[in-house]
Specification:
With 301 residues, the protein is an alpha/beta fold. The chain contains 13 helices and 11 strands. The radius of gyration is 18 Å and the shape is globular. InterPro entries: Indigdn_synthA-like (IPR022830), PsuG (IPR007342).
Length: 301
C-alpha cells in the first residue's frame, strides 16, 4: 500500500484526514465532470481544514491519497474495475487498476490509520432478498472495520428496513445527524427511524472515542446525514421512476451485479438527471461533515 506524502505527514502529525472513494469518479459520473467533482470534493475537505485521501488501486498498488495524475487516470482510463475488498488481492497480484467501492475503501483507509470516510450512499440488502439473497459486501466490511462513515443512507433502490435490520444484527452503530430518521439517499428521509441522534461533529467524535474505550468488536460507526429537503429529488418523481425501473429490470431479467447500475442509470435518465444532482448534493454535504468530524476527532480535548 502506498500512502501519499501529504496523507502520511498529516497522520504522523495527528492532523485530520478524510478518506474518499473513487468509484464515483470512474463509474458514477460522465467525463469530464467526474474529474471536476473529484477535485471539488478534495477542495471541500481542504476548506474544512482536513486532508483528503482519495483511494484507488493503480497498476496493482493500493494508493491512499492520489495526486492530480492519479485522479486523472481514475477519471479517464478505460476498463477500470470496481474493486471491493474481495477484489484487492487479485488486482494486486495481476497488476490491474481499479476504483475502490465502500468495502474496499473502508478496508484500505482503516489499514492506513484513517478513521473518517465520506461517501454518497452505502450498499445494502437488495429487494427480494428472500429469493436471491443479494446483499452488498459493504455491510460485512462495516461489521468488522473501525471506521466512521458519513453517508446519506443506503441507495434507495435497496430494501432499507432489511438493511437497517442487518446492520443491527451485525452490531454496526447508526446515528442520524440532526435527524430522527434514516435518510433516503436521493430523499431527505426514508421514513425509517434511527435509534440515536447527534447534533454536532464533537458529539460524533465522542461516540468514536467511546467505541475505542469499550474495546469491543471492531465495528463501524455510520453517520446518516440527509440531503437537505430543498436539494432532494422530488419524492413523487423518485417513487414513480423507481417503480418503472424495478418493473423494467424484472421484465429484462436483470439480476446480480448488473441490477444496481441498471436501476441507478434508469433513475438518472427517468428523472432527467435530477437524481444525479441530488446524489452530488448529498456527497458534498457528507464530505463537508466528514471533514468537520475528522477535525473534532483529532482535537482530542
Amino acid at each position: 500500500m502506498r500512502v501519499s506524502d501529504e496523507v502520511a505527514g498529516a497522520l504522523a502529525d495527528g492532523r485530520p484526514v478524510v478518506a474518499l472513494e473513487s468509484t464515483i469518479i470512474s463509474h458514477g459520473l460522465p467525463q469530464p465532470r467526474n474529474l471536476q467533482v473529484a477535485l471539488e470534493l478534495e477542495g471541500i475537505v481542504r476548506e474544512a481544514g482536513s486532508v483528503p485521501a482519495t483511494i484507488a488501486v493503480l497498476d496493482g498498488v493500493p494508493h491512499v491519497g492520489l495526486d492530480k495524475t492519479g485522479l486523472e487516470r481514475i477519471a479517464t482510463e478505460p476498463g477500470l474495475r470496481k474493486l471491493g475488498f474481495r477484489d484487492l488481492a487479485p488486482a494486486a497480484a495481476l497488476g490491474l487498476s481499479g476504483a475502490t467501492t465502500v468495502s474496499g475503501t473502508s478496508f484500505l483507509a482503516a489499514r492506513a490509520g484513517i478513521r473518517v470516510f465520506a461517501t454518497g450512499g452505502l450498499g445494502g440488502v437488495h429487494r427480494g432478498w428472500t429469493a436471491v439473497q443479494d446483499e452488498s459486501a459493504d455491510l460485512d466490511m462495516l461489521s468488522r472495520t473501525r471506521i466512521t462513515i458519513v453517508c446519506a443512507g443506503v441507495k434507495s433502490i435497496l430494501d432499507v428496513p432489511a438493511t437497517l435490520q442487518r446492520l443491527e444484527t451485525r452490531q454496526v452503530t447508526v446515528v442520524g445527524y440532526r435527524t430522527d430518521h434514516f435518510p433516503g439517499f436521493y430523499l431527505h428521509s426514508s421514513g425509517e427511524p434511527v435509534d440515536w441522534r447527534v447534533e454536532t461533529p464533537a458529539e460524533t467524535a465522542g461516540i468514536m472515542r467511546a467505541q475505542d474505550a469499550l474495546d469491543g468488536p471492531e465495528t463501524a460507526l455510520i453517520v446518516a446525514n440527509p440531503v437537505p429537503v430543498e436539494l432532494q429529488l422530488d419524492p413523487s418523481l423518485h417513487d414513480r421512476v423507481l417503480s418503472e425501473a424495478l418493473r423494467a429490470a424484472d421484465e429484462r431479467g436483470v439480476t446480480g451485479q448488473a441490477i444496481t447500475p441498471f436501476l441507478l442509470e434508469y433513475l438518472v435518465e427517468g428523472t432527467g438527471g435530477a437524481s444525479l444532482e441530488a446524489n452530488l448534493s448529498a456527497v458534498r454535504g457528507n464530505t463537508r461533515l466528514a471533514a468537520e468530524i475528522a477535525a473534532s476527532w483529532t482535537a482530542r480535548t
